[in-house]
User: Fold this.
Amino acid sequence: MTNEVLLRPVRDDDLPAFFAHEQDPQANWMAAFGPKDPSDRAAFDAHWARIRADERIVNRAVVVGGRLVGRVAAFPVGEQTEVSYWIDAAHWGRGHATAALRALLREVPHRPLHARAAKDNAASLAVLRKCGFVVIGEDSGYAPSRGTEVEEYVLELPAEGADQPDR
Assistant:
């Protein structure tokens, strides 16, 4: 087995593992803007049925050494396309999120791409910066996992050759 990060389409049998990943309180705290109730399996299943039916969304399972370790996605938000990822907390700190996002960026050529991360989520911000995203703004929103408003950075992966803000 290799430690190479591979992406593949999400399968039905991935969903129980994704649901289990979302049960980790620390992961939910870091993600901040995750599900309202991570333990609500019916809501989880309904969410995944909706997003898997939407042909505009690119969802990929992240596999390392034959083991499912998370997911990565690109999806429309208004007129923009955002990216997100979730790596099982047991696999944090090994570069899997960065490798998975880089692989997704090769698959999704559309630019610019956008992302959001809680200001205190240093690990996610590091992943995004390593992949070329730059902070272009700030926002805040209610974070269900924290039960409060959370400040976040808005980031962009600009088109090749585009001027990048000094931030």
Observations:
- The chain has one domain: 5-157.
